[in-house]
Amino acid sequence: MPSPSTIRLLPTLALLSFLSAPAGSEDAGPTSVATFAGGCFWCVESDFDQVPGVVRTISGFTGGTVANPTYRQVTAGGTGHREAVEIHFDPAKVGYAALLEIFWRSVDPTDGGGQFCDRGESYQTAIFVHSPEQRRLAEASKKALQDAKVLTAPIVTPIEDSGPFTPAEDYHQNFYKKSPVRYNLYRFRCGRNARVESLWGTDAYRGIAAHNTKER
């Protein structure tokens, strides 16, 4: 979700319905959960809905000290919460390690002040782990990237234990489908795709099916 000041810059545009349903409409067996903070949760949700094996995504807030926070509280700062997405996935179709690789290549993990045009603690990246095994995989994945020197700057994304997750208000859920023109304009203006492509090159958004960097 962009900051309130960013939202005010966006014109009121008619809603379109040209975007297709994301992964998640399919039937699935038992699922596992991953929780990632990658800046604007509209964008993280949109990206991971296009990952085969992802069954459901929920935009929300986690990592802070205020119970049941609202969007206004979180973006005002001081709650300690980040915008995050709870990703329900079928481990028979996609593993947690694969989701980590997709996450890294869809964000700027070298930016400790936020993501792209959105600044402040609520837009900082983080990986929230749900088990010792997830922590092991996340730490190994982060170390492998650092050791490979794929990026020129240090990776500052923290790995934290998961805690209470508060779903965001209904209008934030699947926003990229509910208001695609406004969403696409925000994503373009915020420079998300341009920065991710500059940082990761041909690996940008690897693992996200049919990713269109001009519109997603």
Strand order of the largest sheet: 7-6-1-3-2-8
The major pleated sheet works out as:
6 strands, mixed
Broad CATH class = Alpha Beta
Work out the oligomeric state of the chains in this entry: single chain
> Would you give the CATH topology?
Peptide Methionine Sulfoxide Reductase, Chain A
Q: What gap, in angstroms, lies between the N and C termini?
A: 14 Å
Integer tally of domains: 1
Question: What would your notes on this structure say?
Answer:
It is a single chain. The protein contains eight helices and eight strands. The chain has a single domain, classed as Peptide methionine sulphoxide reductase MsrA (Peptide Methionine Sulfoxide Reductase, Chain A), CATH 3.30.1060. With 216 residues, the protein is an alpha+beta fold. 32% of the residues lie in helices and 17% in strands.
List the helices and strands and how they pair.
Layout: H1 4-9, E1 32-37, H2 41-48, E2 54-62, H3 71-76, E3 82-89, H4 96-104, E4 114-115, E5 118-119, E6 126-129, H5 132-148, E7 159-161, E8 165-167, H6 175-178, H7 180-190, H8 192-200
Parallel strand pairs: 6-7
Antiparallel strand pairs: 1-3, 1-6, 2-3, 2-8, 4-5
Please provide a brief summary of the model.
The protein has eight helices and eight strands; from the N terminus they run H-E-H-E-H-E-H-E-E-E-H-E-E-H-H-H. With 216 residues, the chain is of the alpha+beta class.
For this entry, give a set of tags:
alpha+beta, two-stranded antiparallel ribbon, six-stranded mixed beta sheet, 216 residues, single chain, Peptide Methionine Sulfoxide Reductase, Chain A, 8 strands
